[in-house]
Amino acid sequence: MEIFSKNDDQLISSLEAESSKGMQRRQFLRYAGVGTAAVGLFAAEACKKDRNSYTGVYLGSGDIGILNYAYALEQLEAAFYVQVVSNAAFTTQFNADEQTLITEVRNHEVLHREFFKAALGGNAIPNLTVNFSAINFANRASVIGAAMAFEDLGVSAYNGAGYLIKSADYLLIAGKIVSVEARHAAYFRDLMTPNTFVGQDVVNVAGNGLEYDKTPQYVLGKASAYITTPINADDLPTS
What we know:
Layout: H1 8-19, H2 25-32, H3 36-44, E1 57-58, H4 62-86, H5 90-93, H6 96-120, H7 140-161, H8 168-192, H9 216-223, E2 231-232
Parallel strand pairs: 1-2
């Protein structure tokens, strides 16, 4: 299954129309809080090695590598929620309020995906392919469980890679996005078990009260259960 469906352009256009922005690439970046200098840096930064020398989709190195890593995860999440909302069972498995909020989550993830695509420009990885056959989209518990797993994984991914980002502008954006992902995670945890929003599996309750973080290698290993396109993360920074 291709992550970008033929209906995505219509969805993106609709989201832009709703926000009354109609943003082009540089407008999108400025709206998100990335200054002109950062845009220029992003355009100028190049991958250290020839992409053609790698097996699999090459994420790159430095900040470009980290943001391509985030872009891959946002592609995965956007594809999942697009399928959730478009599935015929969506209106029978979720009540009206839940449908509204889950549709908003889908909109967030599509916009996150499009932000990275626009910001990375020619350095962006291609569209990835996913396989959600392990998820029963006609079953409420299966959808909520998958959503919770994706959101928890996304939060741990941003937390685990944030310190590797050199640009203060990119770090600011990552912080803004991970805060949205954490809101999503809390919402789906509450749907799974009412009147809860967090668990000891994601927050170190007995210690410092901070969210756990995961390395890119761990996260990509988990994501590979759904992303069928091979991904090469060999040059991602480690310190």
